[in-house]
Amino acid sequence: MSSVEERIRAELEAHPIVLFMKGTALFPMCGFSSRAVQALKAAGATDLHTVNVLEEPEIRANLPRFSDWPTFPQLFVNGELIGGCDITVELAESGELARLVADARKA
Predict the structure, then answer these.
(1) Does residue 16 have a pLDDT over 90?
(2) Residue 50's beta-bridge partner residues?
(3) DSSP of 12-23, one letter per residue?
(4) Smallest Cα–Cα separation from 74: which of 106, 52, 103, 97?
(5) Which residues are noted in the entry as [2Fe-2S] cluster-binding (predicted)?
(6) Cis link prior to 73 (omega < 30° from 0)?
(7) Which residues are annotated as a binding site for glutathione?
(8) pTM score of the predicted model
(9) CB-based contact 64:70 (threshold 8 Å)
(10) Could you tell me the residue range of the domain that residue 11 belongs to?
């Protein structure tokens, strides 16, 4: 396993909710990342941990291979890939994201 994969795994193990995104939760650098953050906050994700892939070029280059998901943002809950912006927003609209967030806090 590469050191980049180890760093990705360490992020996922250390935090129940991780969003690999462009920018930060306070200053998203793309519309998709911004919408994902808004959906997560609305779902109660107060303990959201973000990784700015614009400042982490190795993670940006390797995460798509690690997760088998080509685009950013990428949401992980309890180490499991949930998906990108569209899936995150759809889950928020259905109420499922709030359940995932609540369950992540219990785990």
Answers:
(1) yes
(2) 19
(3) HHH-SEEEEESB
(4) 52
(5) 30
(6) yes
(7) 22, 60, 72, 85-86
(8) 0.95
(9) yes
(10) 3-106
Known binding-site residues for [2Fe-2S] cluster equal: 30
Binding residues: 22, 30, 60, 72, 85-86
Domain CATH code at residue 29: 3.40.30.10
Q: What phi, psi does 77 have (nearest 5°)?
A: -125, 125
Model pLDDT for residues 54-96, shown as the tens digit of each residue: 999 999 999 999 999 999 999 999 999 999 999 999 999 999 9
Which pLDDT does position 77 carry in this prediction? 97
Number of Cβ within a 10 Å radius of residue 107:
8
The tally of domains found in the chain comes to 1
**Distance (Å, rounded) from C-alpha 34 to C-alpha 43?**
14
**CB neighbours of residue 19 within 10 Å:** 27
